[in-house]
Design brief:
Blueprint lengths: L1 H27 L11 H12 L5 E5 L4 E5 L5 H33 L1 H14 L8 H8 L3 H25 L3 H9 L4 H38 L5 H10 L3 H29 L9
Antiparallel strand pairs: 1-2
Helix pairs in contact: 2-10, 3-4, 3-6, 3-8, 3-9, 5-6, 6-8, 8-9, 8-10, 9-10
């Protein structure tokens, strides 16, 4: 199993490595303006500079009659990443925490579904970005509007997948449970909810991805730190290498979270026949 995992990871690296080599070759041949598209090595240097927590300082040597300036790096990446992750976690927790019980209720009750579904279908197509003016008007600047937008982005994927999971439980499970004398609460907790878990986890995975998209946009508008803010700042100064370094950081964070969610899904759904090897 471990050997197969490493083999799959190696295969997955072939295309990215090839793309980097082509990118570096194009940059070395001078086919593109380095201010528009810097080389991978330039982006790597900027990413390291953006990452390491060092600082500028100057030391004056009185006896030597001179000075020594040792510049070091900013460490902004650590603070920006933590700020973005904090907003993603809080916003996703709020959005998913509201969507999960509501989705279970709408999926299990036709009455609740009939009352709330028109409103849900009216609001669902509105992108969270459209709420930016209202979020600033309601919450001002800083973390609250960003958390509000992220919660909106995570809410509907979790809600719709939860509703679908509950409503699409195989009827044979329900009839078998009734024949065995299961009551309403037992039916919901022991049959409907476990059968809906794969859909719910799929919605969680999509919701986290949407939360990452929204956090970058919200940081460009409402806050003064985070990966989105730093990318916008780099654009103002035409630091294309820092823009790409920030984009790569976002990609790496998203990849790490997606891998973690995939492992969690596989662990929680060991019983699911779709995961049998």
């Amino acid at each position: 199993m471990a050997k197969r995992t490493w083999r799959d990871a190696a295969v997955g690296l072939v295309v990215p490595v090839a793309a980097l080599l082509v990118w570096q070759g194009v940059a070395m041949l001078g086919w593109v303006n380095p201010n528009v598209l810097p080389s991978p090595l330039a982006v790597w240097r900027k990413w390291v500079e953006y990452l390491l927590p060092l600082q500028d300082y100057a030391m004056f040597q009185e006896n030597g009659g001179g000075g020594r300036l040792a510049w070091m790096l900013s460490g902004e990446l650590i603070h920006d990443t933590l700020g973005s992750l904090y907003r993603v976690v809080v916003g996703f927790a709020v959005g998913a925490g509201l969507a999960l019980p509501l989705g279970l209720a709408m999926g299990a009750s036709r009455v609740v579904y009939a009352w709330l579904n028109p409103l849900v279908q009216l609001l669902r197509p509105i992108p969270p970005i459209a709420y930016i003016p209202l979020s600033i008007l309601w919450f001002g600047l800083g973390n609250p509007p960003a958390v509000f937008l992220i919660a909106l982005g995570a809410f509907f994927p979790v809600l719709m997948n939860t509703i679908a999971g509950v409503r699409q439980v195989d009827g044979i499970y329900l009839r078998a449970a009734r024949n065995l004398g299961a009551g309403g609460a037992t039916m919901f907790l022991r049959v409907i909810l476990p059968a809906a878990v794969p859909y719910i986890l799929a919605g969680v995975r999509i919701g986290i991805g949407t939360a990452f998209i929204v956090v970058i946009v919200s940081e460009m508008i409402a806050v003064n730190n985070g990966l989105g803010f730093r990318i916008l700042e780099a654009r103002e100064y035409f630091w294309s290498d820092k823009i790409i370094a920030g984009m790569i950081t976002i990609g790496l964070l998203g990849l790490a979270i997606d891998v973690g969610m995939n492992r969690l899904n596989n662990y929680l759904l060991r019983w699911h026949r779709g995961l049998e090897q």
